[in-house]
What we know:
By secondary structure, the chain is α/β, with parallel strands linked by helices. The protein has helices spanning 2-14, 37-50, 67-70, 79-83, 89-92, 117-128, 147-155, 167-184, 199-216, 231-238, 243-246, 251-265, 276-289; strands at 24-29, 55-60, 94-95, 101-103, 136-141, 158-163, 188-196, 220-228.
Amino acid sequence: xxxxxxxxxxxxxxxxxxxxxxxxxxxxxxxxxxxxxxxxxxxxxxxxxxxxxxxxxxxxxxxxxxxxxxxxxxxxxxxxxxxxxxxxxxxxxxxxxxxxxxxxxxxxxxxxxxxxxxxxxxxxxxxxxxxxxxxxxxxxxxxxxxxxxxxxxxxxxxxxxxxxxxxxxxxxxxxxxxxxxxxxxxxxxxxxxxxxxxxxxxxxxxxxxxxxxxxxxxxxxxxxxxxxxxxxxxxxxxxxxxxxxxxxxxxxxxxxxxxxxxxxxxxxxxxxxxxxxxxxxxxxxxxxxx
Length: 290
């Protein structure tokens, strides 16, 4: 009850001045490592920023941070400093390529499930303080189906599942969808086929996944497109740059821009669920209740 009390106390202290600026919160997940989640998160963020959206990427891999490494960024502070109260989110956020901002994590960061009530409330205050500075929050989750992944996905408005045409990727994506649906009531999932040879391969991959989910689960899967296999992505990673910036005419870069246009068309929430505070409260409550 102490965790819930800390949330209620924060709401009362805040009074009626709750920020109602709608923020689109998108969890990018995949069920396993190696499917390109972080690449998708960063390049999608930059493509949205090019369209005029104010975008922040949260590195939500609290055990093995990698976005700062992916982009060659040097970070002095991270989300753990915010949780401990040593820094504000404004202090921790770093400028990334293409006008995006990044909230870095750190290897070995304290798990959400072990936070104390005051840290829960502090995290809510921290995110609420930046809610009027962004339009989209992209949450790059860790690999697997651990508690941290489930908590971040449950709290998000949109779930973008990245899948590659490998049996383990399809199996793990299905396991994640099954867990979120049966145990946590998540119904809608957006599916992105990554590193496919042709667009038809992307559709075929989606068909493989829906064949299983339609048989065993009550979910709605929506295919949002594919990102082709492209050597430019590998070269960009080696240069620690996003492909959309390093090779803007590459096939993968164009695919990310097309994906951003689709994401930009997704409806924004018009209820209190649409503000950033709701996302963090939901995140905290999911860890409290398990």
